[in-house]
Structures are given as C-alpha cells and as structure tokens.
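ESCALATION

Customer reports they have been waiting on this structure for their group meeting. Please prioritize. Original submission:
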Amino acid sequence: MSELSRIRFRCRRGMKELDVLLEAFLSRHYTDADPALQQSFLAVLDVEDPDLWAWIIGHAPPPAQFADVIARLQRND
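Update from on-call: job pushed to the front of the queue and completed.
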C-alpha cells in the first residue's frame, strides 16, 4: 500500500462531510504542499471528529499549528 493510499484511508471518518473535505485536500493540495503543511495535515487526521468539525465550521478556534490546514479545509479550494 502506498503512502497516499494509507493517508486516504486515514481520511475516512465517522462524518461524511469530513470525508469529503479531507479527501479533497489530499487530492488537491497534499502532494504539492511544503513538508510543514503535510505534517500539519497528518496531525489533523489524529484529531477527534467533533473537535475537527467544530474548528472547520468556526464554533471553536483551531490550535495555531493547524490554522493553515483548517483555513484550507474551510475554503474547500
């Protein structure tokens, strides 16, 4: 299994909305991202769904180390 396949598997969550956002980020940004952003994204994958969702929808501010990834997930660009 390739690294991207393992990461894609980790993008599968309990919430379909998170699945869509995380897999879109992986497809659109991960391979071209700088190593710091890649590491931040991988760390975001370890966050519990309720916390991650609260950051994405703006109900709670994300920790500084995740701010760039969360901003990109919010924009869904």
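Sent to customer with the following note: The radius of gyration is 11 Å.
Escalation resolved.
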